[in-house]
DNA sequence: ATATCGATTATCT
DNA sequence: GATAATCGATATG
């Protein structure tokens, strides 16, 4: 195989801001198969493929954190697209979103599950998980709270982070992989607008948080 | 395999 | 003072 193809497949390039300046449902669908990268101290790079996301609309979506308007917590979602919105939930967990739509509009996409690609040992340490076999890998990043813990994502560290720059410690890139078998279901854990099918996942991927949805 | 429940706190009413 | 875009443990079939 030509050398150029090898390096092309390995190279991850950041998604441009324009990618996020659209309807969150479109962004969510197209984020499947992309790569979330966490650069940690010591030059270690943690990477994981996005396999499950949910869209939250900037308008007319009662399940969205922005439904009631601008607050201190949700202000990043009202800002320019491509930035991290991190919130704390249930007294225990952080969840990661990326802001969508143009500046002033408040849509976003929640990251629900990732497939670990590199830095698995670091993720296991952050999660407090002992790795004894391939089956333990799903405990690392299958779930919005879990993936944040695996990548050490917190509100104080990462809220507002620019996810379009490879210079950021957290950013999103494309390695050329084409997502296949996209499925939609209602969103998990929401009590309002529970009928809207705005959860997107890679059908059959073992790292999805809830593969068997009723 | 599915159901239920407790933990724990930032945020908003 | 109530709620929440969750997780892990426990119970039961």
Explain how this protein is built.
The chain has about 210 residues and is an alpha+beta fold. The chain has a single domain, classed as Methylpurine-DNA glycosylase (MPG) (3-methyladenine DNA Glycosylase, Chain A, Roll). It has 8 helices and 9 strands. Strands 1, 2, 3, 4, 5, 6, 7, 8 and 9 form a 9-stranded antiparallel beta sheet that branches. The longest helix has 8 residues, at about 5-10. It starts with a helix and ends in a 12-residue tail after the last strand. It binds a DNA duplex (13 and 13 nucleotides) through strand 4, strand 5 and helix 7.
Tell me the number of strands.
9
What number of domains? 1
**Class based on secondary structure composition and strand pairing:** alpha+beta
Helix and strand pattern? HEHHEEHEEEHHHHEEE
Sketch the major β-sheet. 9 strands, antiparallel
- Estimate the global geometry from the Cα principal axes: globular
Please, what is the CATH homologous superfamily? Methylpurine-DNA glycosylase (MPG)
Helix content: 10-25%
Strand content: 25-35%
What is the level 1 CATH name? Alpha Beta
**C-alpha-based Rg, rounded:** 16 Å
Q: Please give the CATH architecture.
A: Roll
From the 3D structure, determine the CATH topology: 3-methyladenine DNA Glycosylase, Chain A
Ends apart, CA distance between termini: 44 Å
The low-confidence parts are none
Put simply, the count of helices is 8
What is the arithmetic mean of pLDDT?
Answer: 94
